[in-house]
Amino acid sequence: MECREVQERLSAWLDQETAEPEAAALAAHLESCPVCRREAEAWRRLDQVLADLEAPTPSGLAPQVLSRLPRRRSRWQRSLSLAASLVLGITLGGALAGNFFAPLNGEGNGGEVLAFEAFQDFPQGSLGHLLTYPADEDSQA
Which residues lie below 8 Å from residue 118, measured CB to CB, with a gap of 6+? Predict the structure, then answer.
């Protein structure tokens, strides 16, 4: 490796971000080249100085940040909104389901029987035939 390449990759090598073959080549070059070794030592000292620096925090920063955060809703407000959502979902689901299924108590307008007949003929004695033609059994008996 040339000195220029080594010096470009020293920071990554010191941070252990280089692949193993490249790291071995850099280490071998540093053993044989005093100029690059001095450069690597300068990078190490810089890393150490930067690591020892403390960033001062302004006093009162935490209360200022907390005061800007939105207030959390209380537990009962969350419970109330969840309960309202459930009631609304059950109500809408029941209303929509009533429109999709025919009444089972026989008070329908007969449209469900016509839909059954138009869809398929059922074999005599099958459940579909019994549900579709209940009057036929009275006439056969």
Answer: none
CB 7 within 8 A of CB 36: yes
Q: What one-character-per-residue DSSP string does 60-111 give?
A: THHHHHHHHSPPPPPHHHHHHHHHHHHHHHHHHHHHHHHHHS--SSS-S-SH
Tell me if 29 sits within 8 A of 36, measured CB to CB.
yes
Q: Which residues contact 102 (CB under 8 A, 6 or more apart)?
A: 108, 111, 112
Q: How far apart are the C-alpha atoms of 97 and 92, rounded to whole Å?
A: 8
pTM: 0.39
Task: Kindly state the tokens that stand for 30.
Answer: 């540093």
Instruction: Give the span between the Cα atoms of 96 and 99, in whole angstroms.
Output: 5
Averaged pLDDT, groups of 10, the chain, 141 residues long: 87 89 90 91 90 86 88 83 93 77 55 52 66 58 48
